[in-house]
Specification:
Blueprint: E1 26-30, H1 35-51, E2 59-64, H2 70-83, H3 88-97, E3 99-102, H4 108-117, E4 122-126, H5 130-140, E5 150-154, H6 161-172, E6 180-183, H7 190-200, E7 214-222, H8 231-256, H9 265-278, E8 279-281, E9 290-296, E10 298-300, E11 303-305, E12 323-330, E13 340-345, E14 352-359, E15 377-381, E16 386-394, E17 402-410, H10 418-428, E18 434-435, H11 437-455, E19 461-465
Length: 476
């Protein structure tokens, strides 16, 4: 059963803080030749300028280790924008003002030269590995940054509580917290933004959005993709750090937060921080409340997939997991006793990307009604975005029998890709979709105990064949 949406492409309008008094005039892209920049950031910038052509005055300064001249850089940029289906007008506008400089991004001298070449106020986007970003931030201590400078960092933010705390301390000496953008592009996904509308624009949901009515919450991001050439990063991170420690904890915070007064950077980020401060491992037992597994050889979509440990660039000695699951509890009046299961994996047979809120069963089914009476479930699906409510109704053939139906509708894909929404916030100086420093530390605090248990082999490494849904016995 389906319900059509009166406005199928509607999406909650995000109203953040007003634009900064010092608008961003230059985007300095550090690591401009890398995969992140060419595959995601440059196309997202192009899409943003397509939707908001008044921003086309922004200058893009690329920087990297490669000895490129301006023409080589422009050819690279044009190829990236064209692959992202950016309009010719936007491509021409960016090519007219962009430039490139070879630089060692960990050198204070080279960073100073880049800052001087950028019109104030610049946004320095670190499209770099985390270790290189940390070194670059150390080097910036010796660079005079123009007032209004913005620093944009990709996750992970540190490698544990101590390193995340140290990184925050370094950043605080460079720019104010509100000018520090820790990017988690999941916060720009239309599904996550739509969560705000579902939560707070429907009176029917808020009275039951608590432990009196909710039995469990599952946040799952399983994908059929394999390493796709990312072994250099992924084998050092694994599913727990790559997805759960960052993206899925942020999604959980939006799902579980208390009502907010306004969709503003302060209100939203403080509400998420309250959730994360209250979050802990289920039963305080990281070994028993987590699972890990790694894929072996199999087939996905007719394509043979090798054993993970035989993938190019993988070091078997690291013991990296490709499927992780953690059960958490939010120790608050609203959620105490409700398990939040976060799971993410690669190389599964059927991708599953959704938030599932399972409600408690009815207290009494009248005598005379027959059939299975399953709990109601609200499902928010990510990509393509959709929402579904699974309910019990009277049977079509037997009016005294219980049948299962799903009331569903597609949600709008949003005006911009996730990174486009993030870049819009950066250029506006609005940290609504940025991760605040204290919550970055909290995310490590939640997960560090699991990492420690895994390092001690207290949680066994299981296996699953590529193309299956995980080890036998795991809930899907």
């Amino acid at each position: 059963m389906s319900i059509s949406s009166a406005t199928p492409h509607s999406q909650l309008t995000v109203q953040g803080a007003p634009a900064s008094d010092t608008p961003i005039s230059t985007l300095v892209l550090l690591g401009a030749s890398g995969d992140l920049a060419s595959r995601l950031l440059m196309p997202a910038l192009g899409k943003l300028l397509d939707v908001e052509p008044e921003r086309r005055g922004i200058e893009l300064l690329g920087a990297g280790a490669e000895a490129w001249d301006d023409q080589t850089w422009k050819d690279h940029l044009k190829a990236s924008l064209s692959a992202g289906k950016v309009s010719d007008d936007t491509i021409d506008a960016l090519l007219a003002t962009t430039s490139y400089q070879q630089a060692d991004v960990t050198s204070a001298e080279d960073l100073g030269r880049l800052v001087k070449a950028a019109k104030p106020a610049p946004a320095l986007y670190f499209a770099l590995p985390p270790a290189v970003t940390a070194k670059a931030c150390d080097a910036l201590e010796h660079v005079t940054l123009p007032e209004g400078t913005v620093l944009v960092l990709e996750k992970p933010f540190g490698t544990d509580v101590a390193s995340a705390t140290a990184l925050n301390a370094r950043l605080s000496t460079l720019v104010p917290e509100e000018r520090t953008f820790r990017v988690d592009h999941f916060l720009g996904r239309s599904t996550v933004l739509n969560l705000l509308g579902v939560r707070f624009a429907n009176r029917i949901l808020e009275p039951v959005w608590n432990n009196q009515h909710v039995a469990s919450v599952d946040i799952v991001f399983d994908e059929s993709l394999t390493l796709e050439g990312r072994a250099g990063y992924y084998d050092k991170a694994g599913a727990l750090i790559d997805m759960i420690q960052s993206h899925l904890l942020q999604v959980m915070a939006v799902v579980a937060m208390n009502p907010i007064g306004a969709v503003s950077a302060f209100d939203l980020r403080e509400a998420k921080a309250d959730v994360l401060r209250s979050c802990r491992i289920w039963d305080d037992d990281p070994a028993a409340s987590s699972r890990r597994a790694r894929y072996t050889a199999g087939t996905i979509g007719g394509r043979d997939v090798p054993d993970y440990v035989k993938e190019p660039g993988v070091d078997p000695a690291r013991g990296t997991e490709t499927l992780a699951e953690v059960t958490l509890e939010i120790d608050s009046w609203r959620w105490s006793g409700v398990p939040f299961r976060l799971r993410s994996g690669k190389s599964v047979g059927v991708a599953r990307k959704e938030v599932v809120v399972t409600f408690k069963g009815v207290p009494h089914l009248p005598t005379g009604l027959t059939g299975a009476c399953e709990p109601d479930r609200l499902r928010l699906v990510m990509g393509p975005d959709a929402i579904a409510l699974d309910l019990n109704v009277n049977g079509e053939d037997d009016p005294m029998g219980i049948d299962r139906v799903s009331l569903d509708t597609q949600l709008g894909a949003g005006r911009l890709p996730a990174y486009g929404e993030v870049l819009a916030g950066v250029l506006d100086g609005d940290p609504l979709l940025a991760v605040r420093g204290d919550t970055a530390v909290e995310c490590w605090r939640i997960i560090d105990a699991v990492l420690d248990a895994w390092a001690k082999d207290e949680t066994p490494m299981q296996t699953y064949a590529a193309g299956t849904q995980g080890p036998e016995g795991w809930p899907v």
